[in-house]
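Entry 14. Structure prediction run on the chain below.
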Amino acid sequence: MAAELPLDPYAASRWLGYIGLFGIIGAPVFRGLIHRVTRDARLDPDTGVRFGAACRRAGLASAVVLILAHLARLWFQARSALDPGEPMTFGGAVEPWFEGPGSWGLMWATQLGAAVVALIGMLVAKRRLAAGWSLALLGAAGAALAMPLTGHAVESRLGSAAGVVLQGLHLLCGGLWLGTLFVLITVTFAATRGRPDARERAAAAVVHAYSPLALTGAAVAIGIGLVLAWVMLGSLSLLWTTSYGIALLCKLALLSGVAALGAWNWRRVRPALGAAPGARRLRLSATAELVIGALLLGVTAVLVALPSPRP
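Output returned:
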């Protein structure tokens, strides 16, 4: 009989971590599109400034969520080693995870450090635009590549280096796809509040600029994900006979839903943008896509805690 799925606070902290990670990837990517959007949508300078400020706020919030998620993971990891009722002390519960050059604690510290770099970059961007956003992008890429260091990737049958890089690219491209969509929707509607005409033009421009990135990110993320899934499974029968396989099936079902909504946005919603009610339709369909995407990340947070079923 398959083992129970690890639905616990530690999995919840990983889920929040993935959400924060996707946000810090999406913020600098969308920031790079703002000049093109303001030009193509013929937005006034004040609205362009609003776009930049809202993008920075979204990135800051995402970085804070990621950092808090990492701190929560350390707490729950330390608690897992204690007996029920045993008091929590730094030396007794936390320090053992930092022993050794390849320890879980040092890998966790790398993840936290990359998130802090992204946060600092977005803070610096308020005064030094180019330097700050470049640092934020560097931190976001580092955070994506560091996230697999405490998961299955380090024990991959492809080798630890290949496993970490592939998993990191999988997360990076997923963030390029869904993380940028989250920032796009949040920023576009915040920056054009009270300006319906500008909102319709901006919605058309942002989708036009974002679509090539979404198609690339989704294609690469899904392709790498399928390779990683096969490496972990090795047999189709394990999909319905193990906890890992069942969780993977749930992830694939949610992924299909996200991809279907993305295709709907591309074929039906995108051509109608530029005039009312195009922006409202975009908001509804993109929100649905993001909700399913958030559920997908929740399943991923459970999946990475399950042992590989491959003998």
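Residues 9-303 form one domain.
Filed with the rest of this week's runs.
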